[in-house]
């Protein structure tokens, strides 16, 4: 993405005492390839519907970087018999760090002004990961976190690809050194016979390429959420460029095929950007399209004559776009994210124009005022000086990043105190029913419990630990309440929405001397059918439910409480529709003698409920959700209850909504910890209703 666009001309190796440095020539077609890659990414990030596979621009950048970086290393190794790590890493720091660190500083400064308090934690953590070039691993960790996977993107999210490249730059020259060592490291031998060194490096690079590609295919076909960001599944794309650099030292031999290769390569990349989408397993076999397309363009070299793309690729506009491609990549995504934060809407046509103008303006400024001056300044030419400067700059920017949480430190402390005050009064302020006494704030108080900044943590740790991850094929069994000689057994079965009811159920069960046995599985409704979709999560849920059904037959509970996120679309089951899958398991439990209680789902909040409450702390009514929207998509359970008449329904809706509105804050208590999960604090207030709903054991 960032290497200098040069390539070797033909070289003649002379006596070791007087090595000749290979002449480097400018590659305008590679610069044009950069322009195409960044354009695809920018369009995709602005509106994925326009170019659903535009994310492959990153894959093109990977091939370019692997090709150019390996070329630099090869020229030094083949002409001198050694590789200077200090020189290589200083060159990378000189090229990459200035623009990326300035972008980070700019984003942090803007974030101090525009960022809602609730987003500060995720932003500063990703900013830190970006400065340290491990953002890809930070995003991979979020991708496997059921709660964090729905987080809004930060302005640093696109730094993941820079993380992959920087990690590549750390170990790739070490492979070249290993190749030199395997051959004996003798400068005299290497310079006289570089072909043998090339064969060793091809073997090393090829091994990395094959291993990474196989792993990438396996993980992407398994729909592993880490696969997209992992260095291990991505490095093969850079290795492809590296192998190409060793195999194609001179493009003259491909002269008869230049135009065909160039057109084929460019067309393959554009076609992939149009055909692929977010649902494509990636990076796996599908990544071959942009990767091989980029290789074809590079192998073609400079085209000419009829059918040539030269008029386009070497035009002033395309070449200048290639020049600023790195800075444009850095700045376009922050512009898009900040636009969304400021306007709160999806970009319209005029908005897109504003985003593009702002992105290009920042990119041109970055290229002109940061990239070029640092790259050409004599002061930075000394390798040691450059490396020390880079290290100091990273430390300084890291310190700046760590100041971002200070923006909300005072707010968090004040709201913590408010939350303690509100919690102490919660029993008096929560209405028994919304129809009796509903108000978002009692007596005009401005204290909310739990602290909105910590709402995501407001859940029962024991229950949360007993909830299976989405890809688990076994749902864990946990026990609460009276476990020694219980008077009865109640099972709580379902997804994370059933988990929300576990603590109120356990309180009532303990009062009655009952044992509570849970089977809780994230995003997995308990049903004989399945959710709509074909994914590892759906398959895992089906397998887990089959095991749970068998365990419940053996357990033979007296009461079964079940709930699920009713906005899920369930697949058709048999000839009778999606409700039949629910009815089948409910009837089966009733046949075992269990009293089945179906707790209706809690309402859903608006998507930005936590951000909204933190921005409107003294007037959270701004964050209320119309009842119609909060209850959207609930059609399956009523039909299932008709098909399973022995199951009873329990509804807590009147504790959350009045006739028109479902508030975000009720009686000084924050209702939601995310758009569809209720805080533990508010669920405490549901206990009395659960006591009314749960039947006495017959």
TrEMBL record:
Disordered, as annotated region: 1-23
Domain Acyltransferase: 29-368
Bias (Low complexity): 1-12
Residue stretches spanning the membrane: 30-46, 52-74, 95-115, 168-185, 197-215, 227-248, 260-276, 282-303, 324-343, 349-370, 382-404
Pfam families: Acyl_transf_3, SGNH
Record keywords, A-Z: Acyltransferase, Membrane, Transferase, Transmembrane, Transmembrane helix
A single BP term in Gene Ontology: lipopolysaccharide biosynthetic process
Highest rank taxon of the organism: Bacteria
InterPro entries attached to this UniProt entry: Acyl_transf_3_dom, Acyltransferase_3, SGNH
GO MF annotation terms: acyltransferase activity, transferring groups other than amino-acyl groups
Domain SGNH: 466-690
Gene Ontology CC annotation, any one: membrane
Protein name: Acyltransferase
Organism: Promicromonospora citrea
């Amino acid at each position: 993405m960032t290497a200098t666009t040069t390539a070797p001309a033909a070289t003649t190796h002379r006596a070791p005492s007087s090595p000749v440095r290979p002449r480097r020539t400018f590659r305008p077609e590679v610069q044009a390839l950069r322009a195409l890659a960044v354009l695809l990414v920018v369009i995709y990030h602005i509106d994925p519907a326009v170019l659903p596979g535009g994310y492959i621009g990153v894959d093109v950048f990977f091939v370019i970087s692997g090709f150019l970086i390996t070329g630099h290393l090869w020229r030094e190794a083949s002409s001198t018999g050694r590789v200077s790590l200090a020189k290589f890493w200083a060159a990378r720091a000189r090229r990459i760090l200035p623009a990326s660190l300035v972008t980070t500083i700019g984003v942090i400064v803007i974030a101090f002004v525009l960022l809602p308090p609730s987003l500060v934690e995720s932003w500063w953590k990703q900013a830190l990961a970006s400065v340290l070039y491990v953002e890809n691993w930070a995003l991979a960790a979020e991708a496997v976190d059921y709660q964090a996977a729905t987080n809004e993107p930060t302005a640093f999210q696109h730094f993941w690809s820079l993380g992959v490249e920087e990690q590549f730059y750390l170990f790739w020259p070490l492979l070249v050194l290993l190749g030199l060592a395997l051959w004996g490291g003798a400068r005299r031998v290497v310079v006289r016979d570089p072909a043998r060194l090339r064969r060793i490096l091809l073997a090393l690079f090829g091994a990395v390429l094959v291993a990474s590609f196989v792993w990438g295919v396996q993980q992407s076909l398994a729909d592993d959420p880490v696969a997209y960001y992992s260095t291990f599944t991505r490095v093969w794309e850079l290795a492809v460029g590296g192998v190409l650099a060793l195999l194609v030292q001179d493009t003259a031999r491909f002269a008869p095929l230049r135009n065909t290769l160039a057109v084929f390569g460019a067309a393959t990349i554009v076609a992939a950007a149009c055909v692929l989408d977010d649902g494509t397993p990636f990076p796996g076999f599908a990544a071959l399209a942009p990767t091989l397309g980029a290789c074809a363009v590079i192998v073609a070299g400079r085209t000419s004559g009829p059918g040539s793309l030269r008029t386009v690729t070497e035009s002033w506009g395309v070449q200048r776009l290639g020049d600023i491609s790195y800075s444009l990549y850095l700045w376009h995504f922050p512009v898009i994210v900040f636009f969304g934060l400021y306007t709160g809407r999806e970009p319209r046509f005029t908005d897109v124009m504003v985003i593009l103008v702002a992105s290009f303006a920042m990119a041109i400024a970055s290229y002109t005022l940061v990239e070029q001056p640092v790259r050409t300044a004599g002061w930075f030419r000394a390798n040691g000086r450059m490396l020390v400067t880079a290290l100091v700059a990273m430390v300084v920017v890291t310190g700046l990043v760590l100041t971002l949480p200070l923006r909300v430190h005072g707010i968090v402390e004040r709201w913590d105190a408010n939350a303690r005050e509100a919690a102490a009064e919660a029993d008096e302020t929560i209405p028994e029913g919304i129809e009796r006494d509903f108000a978002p704030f009692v007596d005009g108080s401005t204290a909310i419990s739990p602290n909105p900044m910590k709402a995501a943590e407001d859940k029962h740790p024991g229950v949360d630990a007993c909830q299976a991850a989405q890809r688990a094929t076994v749902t864990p069994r946990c026990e609460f309440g009276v476990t020694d000689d219980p008077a009865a057994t109640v099972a709580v079965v379902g997804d994370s929405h059933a988990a929300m009811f576990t603590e109120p159920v356990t309180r009532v069960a303990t009062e009655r001397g009952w044992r509570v046995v849970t089977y809780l599985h994230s995003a997995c409704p308990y049903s004989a059918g399945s959710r709509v979709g074909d994914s590892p999560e759906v398959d895992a849920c089906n397998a887990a439910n089959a095991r749970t059904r068998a365990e419940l037959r053996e357990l033979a509970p007296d009461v079964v409480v079940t709930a699920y996120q009713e906005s899920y679309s369930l697949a058709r089951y048999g000839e009778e529709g999606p409700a039949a899958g629910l009815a089948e398991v409910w009837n089966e439990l009733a046949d075992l003698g269990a009293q089945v209680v179906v707790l209706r789902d809690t309402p859903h909040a608006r998507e930005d409920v936590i951000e909204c409450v933190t921005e409107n702390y003294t007037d959270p009514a701004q964050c209320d959700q119309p009842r119609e929207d909060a209850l959207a998509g609930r059609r399956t359970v009523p039909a299932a209850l008709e098909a399973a008449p022995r199951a009873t329904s329990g509804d807590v809706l009147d504790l959350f909504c009045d006739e028109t509105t479902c508030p975000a804050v009720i009686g000084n208590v924050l209702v939601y910890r995310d758009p569809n999960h209720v805080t533990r604090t508010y669920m405490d207030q549901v206990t009395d209703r659960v006591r009314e709903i749960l039947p006495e054991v017959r």
